[in-house]
Amino acid sequence: MTRRELPLRLAAGALLASRWSEPALAERALVAGEAPPETVWLNANENPEGPCPAALEAMAETLARVGRYHYQQQRDFLAAVARSEGLEPEQVLIGAGSSEILQVAVYAFTAPDRPLIFPEPTFELPAGIARALGRPVVPVPLTERFTADVERLVAEADKAGGGLIYLCNPNNPTSTITSKSELAWIVDNLPPRTVLLVDEAYIHFSDDPELESAIGYACQGREVVVARTFSKIYGLAGLRVGFGCARPELIARMAALRSNVVSWVSARAVLASLAQLPGLVVERRRRLAALRGELCRWLAERGFSYIEPHANFVMIDLGRDVRQVISEMVRRGVAPGRPFPPLETFLRVSIGTPAEMEKFRHVFAEVMGV
Fold first, then answer.
1. Which end of the chain is more exposed for a tag (fewer CB within 10 A), N or C?
2. For residues 154 and 190, is the Cβ–Cβ distance under 8 A?
3. Of all helices (H) and strands (E), which one includes residue 11?
4. How far apart are CA 199 and CA 292, in angstroms?
5. Using CA atoms in the order 292, 170, 93, 181, what is the torsion angle rounded to 10 degrees?
6. Range(s) for CATH 3.90.1150.10 in the chain?
7. Other Cβ atoms within 10 Å of 185 Cβ, number
8. Nearest to 42 by CA among 296, 356, 311
């Protein structure tokens, strides 16, 4: 790639990433004009609590100063994010949400002879980017427990002579986890010329002791990249802030392909949120778990099975084609998640406010006849 081609490639990549983002995928799954104005949106795994009060206050205070670029403060922001995870600044890359981190990782670590290897179904953005770039993709079916088949993921990378293994943990859409022992096995058995990309967008929603962050491996200098976002538990989806962490050499390769700068308003909101740790995450996780548990009990009482959830969404087995159910629910003012082939009978629903979940139960019962 020449220096002249790079800006065009980055611009095209940004467009591709926006097309494969969670909200864009959710929007395209709906029929135009189908949703009434008062629709409850439970289709993009957003946090209904939104920004914490400290973040709102920080944003309001910053608006009068957006006429400056705040270059020094941007460096301070990077250092603060790194500090929050026990990392050095050179181990961290700030992005426009975790989506940009996933995007540049696909750019950096796939090639015509190095495929993207991923469980199916999972979050579609990395595969969408790889396909658009003409990079080979290797989907690997989930296990019978709806978890990633870690041995086969590694085997496919070995067969290809290297590549990028993408692992969303907890997985979107199944809400299942790859256990810490499975994660350790993948890292220890990565073939040559292979990088593991772990998407931890939803990791804060679970306190399962079997769920472990891969950031420790990044700190150890392994061939691991971790993507995190402030969109989910922090409730800052509209601000588009995330970060990646890895050993400095991997970060440098991705940084050369990054095109965005996080706004200072967004950065201040993140800093204010980080100042509320650990209480902010603990309390939000507790409230979310209560609403999620209430929904799961309600479903079980009516004979519906679901995949044991570890995130802010639940995957429900309807026992029938999901597309018609989605359409009927949207017409009644509730928009659940899109279809996720090959799980054609499963409906993903994001956890909303208590009032939103009450409306979901009412409409779901009406459509399903229970």
1. N
2. yes
3. helix 5-19
4. 22
5. 140
6. 5-50+279-368
7. 15
8. 356
Q: Environment class of residue 369 by beta-carbon count within 10 Å: exposed (0-12), middle (13-18) or buried (19+)?
A: exposed
Q: Could you report the per-residue pLDDT of 233-272, keeping only the tens digit for each?
A: 999 999 999 999 999 999 999 999 987 679 999 999 999 9
| Rounded Cα gap, residues 288 and 312, in angstroms | 7
Alpha helices, H only, the chain: 5-19, 22-28, 53-62, 71-84, 97-109, 125-132, 150-160, 180-188, 215-219, 248-255, 264-274, 279-301, 322-331, 354-368
Tell me: the pLDDT tens digits for 338-351? 999 999 999 999 99
Q: How many CB atoms sit inside 10 A of residue 107's CB?
A: 22
Q: Which residues of the chain have pLDDT under 70?
A: 1-33, 260
Please name which of 34, 33, 44 lies closest in space to residue 332, comparing C-alpha atoms.
34
Tally Cβ neighbours within 10 Å of residue 49: 15
Residue 365 tokens, joined: 């019962």
Tokens of 258: 């990054």
User: Does the predicted model carry a pTM greater than 0.85?
Assistant: yes
List every span in the chain annotated with CATH 3.40.640.10. Answer: 53-274
Does 3.30.200.20 match the CATH number of domain 53-274?
Answer: no
Residue 316 and residue 306 in contact, taking contact as beta carbons nearer than 8 Å: yes
Superfamily for domain range 5-50+279-368: Aspartate Aminotransferase, domain 1 (3.90.1150.10)
Q: Are 35 and 332 in contact (CB under 8 A)?
A: no
Q: Is the dihedral of CA 271, 244, 131, 188 positive or negative?
A: negative
Helix axes 264-274, 53-62, angle to 10 degrees: 150
